[in-house]
Write a structure and sequence with these properties.
Elements lengths: L1 H9 L5 H13 L8 H14 L9 E8 L15 H11 L3 H9 L1 E9 L10 E2 L17 H20 L4 E7 L4 H12 L3 H4 L8 H18 L6 H8 L2 H15 L4 E3 L2 H13 L7 E3 L8 H8 L15 H19 L3 H4 L5
Parallel strand pairs: 1-2, 1-4, 2-3, 4-5, 5-6
The protein binds nicotinate mononucleotide (NCN) and 5,6-dimethylbenzimidazole (DMD).
Family: Belongs to the CobT family.
Catalytic activity: 5,6-dimethylbenzimidazole + nicotinate beta-D-ribonucleotide = alpha-ribazole 5'-phosphate + nicotinate + H(+)
Function: Catalyzes the synthesis of alpha-ribazole-5'-phosphate from nicotinate mononucleotide (NAMN) and 5,6-dimethylbenzimidazole (DMB).
Length: 349
């Protein structure tokens, strides 16, 4: 708990002077003012986070947190629970979508077992298991408050390790059969929404499954009565271990001055939790894509974030975030590689 409190206190607002300097540099480049749109606001945000203009692409990593969910016994996913552990091995073998997209973007994939039910053994797997999957949140708390805090602290610790290794840009990724159910419950609680607005088809539920999932989320909230003003209470009662871990990753990154690209529905709910812990953490977030999952638009709205891409994806793993990496690299490269009006002898308007 001390680590969590210290991390929250260490998060600083963005550096105004560095942002102004980057705005000035952008204004001298050979283009009409503001014409590079979101690339310009990204360059300014990166400068505010780093405390200086960032004109070289940062070293990048996607952190894929994997965990299982006791709520799967309610029949809320189109896939069986054992797929979580099986996909972890696929990540480690390099064969998953996130491996392809990260490789293409020059990013490494860091795979973490924060709560997979089965024992997964692989030399490259970071085993930080807080418990072997959550309990069924439709019948009681998903985990204890202490476990929720420990899962958040696993994420903080990882961000610290990666920042110390020179990673300058992180992306959130996750794998957990059933995890759109706790994500929907958390979103409904934090956003005071009707669960129907937060519950979607996940990996591909049919209409009957969707109805069952809605009833499950409603029951989870009625049974547990989470206190929306107490983030750890919400995570412990209706959350998940990888969601908690990602919230911690975001807090740890913000405390170390590292920006974080947010993937789809589950990642965005983790970001909401992080921002409830520490409102300034929002300034360190970079949205990526709009997931097809129902509820993602509302989750992004909760954070006031506008996605860059809409590719009708709903995979998770960090795939949407990895696709935003080249856009972020572009924001850095224009600063160092474009000519200025002066250097190119072009008349200003
Ligand atoms: O990121 C998203 O927006 C997203 C939307 C739907 C599903 N997923 C992925 O699918 C799994 C959760 O779906 P489900 O149906 O089992 O709850 C989990 O492994 C997520 O990574 C991810
Ligand atoms: C195969 C598979 C891959 C995934 N990656 C993230 N969630 C997933 C769910 C399934 C079912």
């Amino acid at each position: 708990m001390d680590k969590l409190r210290q991390t929250i206190e260490a998060i600083r607002p963005l550096d105004e002077a560095a942002m102004k300097e980057t705005e000035r540099r952008l204004g001298r480049l050979t283009k009409p003012p503001g014409s590079l749109g979101r690339l310009e606001s990204l360059a300014v945000q990166l400068a505010g986070i780093a405390g200086a203009t960032v004109d070289r692409p940062p070293r990048k990593a996607v952190v894929v947190m994997a965990a299982d969910h006791g709520v799967c016994e309610e029949g809320v996913s189109a896939f069986p629970q054992e797929v979580t552990g099986q996909m972890v091995l696929n990540f480690l073998a390099g064969g998953a979508a996130i491996n392809v997209l990260a490789r293409q973007a020059g990013a490494e994939v860091v795979c973490v077992d924060i709560g997979v039910k089965s024992e997964v053994a692989h030399e490259s797997l970071l085993v930080r298991k807080v418990r072997a999957g959550t309990a069924n949140l439709a019948r009681g708390a998903a985990m204890t408050r202490d476990e929720a805090a420990r899962a958040v602290e696993v994420g903080i610790g990882l961000a610290e390790e990666l920042a110390a290794r020179g990673i300058g840009l992180l992306a959130t990724g996750e794998m957990g059969i059933g995890n759109t159910t706790p994500s929907a419950a958390m979103l409904a609680v934090f956003g005071e929404l009707d669960p129907a607005e937060a519950v979607g088809r996940g990996t591909g539920l049919d209409d009957e499954g969707l109805r069952r999932k809605y009833e499950t989320v409603k029951r989870a909230i009625e049974t547990n009565r989470p206190n929306r003003d107490d983030v750890l209470d919400v995570i412990a009662k209706v959350g998940g271990l990888e969601i908690a871990g990602l919230a911690g990753l975001i807090l740890g990154a913000a405390a170390r001055g590292v920006p974080v690209v947010i993937d789809g529905f589950i990642s965005t709910v983790a970001a909401i939790a992080a921002v409830r812990f520490a409102p300034i953490a929002r300034e360190y977030l970079i949205p990526s894509h709009l997931s097809e999952e129902r509820g993602h638009r509302l989750a992004l709205r909760e954070l006031g974030l506008e996605p860059m891409l809409n590719l009708e994806m709903r995979l998770g793993e960090g795939t949407g975030a990895a696709l935003a990496f080249p856009v972020i690299d572009a924001a850095c490269n224009v600063l160092s590689q474009m000519a200025t009006f002066d250097s190119a002898g072009i008349s200003e308007g």
